[in-house]
Amino acid sequence: MERKASSMPADWSTLSSLAEATIRKVLRSLPRDLRVEAERVPVSFETRPNQALQQDGIEPDTLGLFVGEPFSRIGTTTSPLPAQIILFLENIWGAADGDEGEYREEVRATLLHELGHYLGLDEIDLEERGLD
How does pLDDT run across 74-83, given as a tens digit for each residue? Predict the structure, then answer.
C-alpha cells in the first residue's frame, strides 16, 4: 500500500503523548470490571519490532504485540515473561498515513486487539468482534 506524506512530524514525544492520551481514553471507556483487568497489564512503546522480535517471527510492520501469560491463564503456564502490551508507534503512524486522527484510532484499535489477547481471545475471536 502506498503511503502519503506525514501531515505532522512523527517525533517520538508527539507519538507517545498522543498514544498515552488515547490509551487513557480507551481505558476510561471500558466497563468497570473489564477496566480493572485492562489496567493491570502494562503498555509500553517501541518504534518498531527490533531484530530479536523479527528473528522470533514478528513482522517488521507489526502494530502491536501481547506477550506473557493471558489473564485467563495466569499461574497455569511457564511463560517467563510478565503480561505486557507493546505498541509500535512508528508503525502505527505509518499505518495511519501520517494523519493524527487516524493515528489515534489505530492506537485505540491496536490496544483493544492486544487487550483481547490478554483476556484470552484468539485471532478468530477478535475478528468476530471486529478487532482484527
Answer: 555 565 677 8
Cell numbers representing residue 18 in the block: 498522543
Burial class of residue 101, CB neighbours in 10 A (0-12, 13-18, 19+)? exposed
Q: Which tens digit of pLDDT belongs to each residue from 11-67?
A: 999 999 999 999 999 999 988 888 888 898 999 999 999 999 999 999 999 999 998
- pLDDT score, position 8: 53
Kind of pairing, strands 84-88 and 64-67?
antiparallel
Residue 118 binned pLDDT confidence (cut-offs 50, 70, 90): confident
The domain locations on the chain are 12-128
- CATH number for 12-128 (one of 3.90.700.10, 3.30.2010.20, 3.40.50.2300, 3.40.1080.10): it is 3.30.2010.20
Count other C-beta atoms under 10 Å from residue 42's C-beta: 11
2-5: long-range contacts, CB 8 A cutoff, minimum separation 24 = 3/94, 3/97, 3/98, 4/97, 4/98, 5/98
